[in-house]
Write a structure and sequence with these properties.
The chain is elongated. It has two helices and nine strands. The strands form three sheets. A four-stranded antiparallel sheet has the order 6-5-8-9, with no helix packed on it.
Length: 192
């Protein structure tokens, strides 16, 4: 799923840590931009987290041989990467496919007003808190139930069927894990 025309290396070429190999894209039938990585050291496929031959160290926590820098490894282990793929406002209910394709209805003064957030890499027990504020204060607030299993993608939304009043609206999405907010994001709908 590399961005078309972005590949900066050739097959069989040796690469070094930090070397640009290309840009991640959204080609093919995927849910979100991502990249599959296969790492070889001296011709043997290795797990980049442990540095061991692939499949030999799956349950081990020993990352002393990791191919990642200490900072990158810490960020990956602690979930220090982006969870929120996209958020925005819509004129009615939305689902993940509509968000990906941008086919959801845009809000108007005669439509419902919905704020949505699409996440990736969620864990069992995670939940999402969403709110919309506008002229006159809080317009809508909601919280999902804790997830019953891991989710590669998950779209949540909050809103009301009644049309909004003219003015500026703000949406906020919070991802809660183990009782604490691990990601918070705010968006603004300039004017309706």
């Amino acid at each position: 799923h590399m961005e078309k025309g972005s590949i900066a290396v050739n097959p069989g070429e040796r690469v070094k840590r930090g070397q640009k190999i290309g840009l991640m894209g959204l080609s093919g039938a995927t849910e979100f931009p991502h990249i599959h990585v296969s790492v070889r050291r001296d011709g043997i496929v290795v797990d980049p987290f442990t540095g061991s031959p692939a499949g030999t160290n799956c349950q081990a926590a020993d990352t002393s041989g990791s191919l990642f820098s200490a900072d990158a490894l810490k960020r990956l282990q602690n979930g220090g990467f982006r969870h929120l793929l996209e958020d925005g406002f819509a004129g009615g209910q939305v689902n993940g496919k509509q968000v990906l394709k941008g086919t959801y209805k845009r809000p108007t003064l005669s439509s419902p007003l919905v704020y949505f957030a699409k996440y990736i890499n969620l864990r069992k027990g995670d939940f999402i808190r969403l709110s919309i504020t506008g002229p006159g204060g809080e317009y809508a607030r909601s919280q999902t139930k804790p997830l019953d299993r891991k989710k590669s993608t998950y779209t949540a939304y909050v809103g009301r069927k009644r049309p909004p009043k003219p003015g500026i609206y703000r949406g906020q999405a919070e991802l809660i894990r183990n009782g604490r907010v691990i990601h918070s994001h705010k968006s603004k709908l300039k004017s309706l």
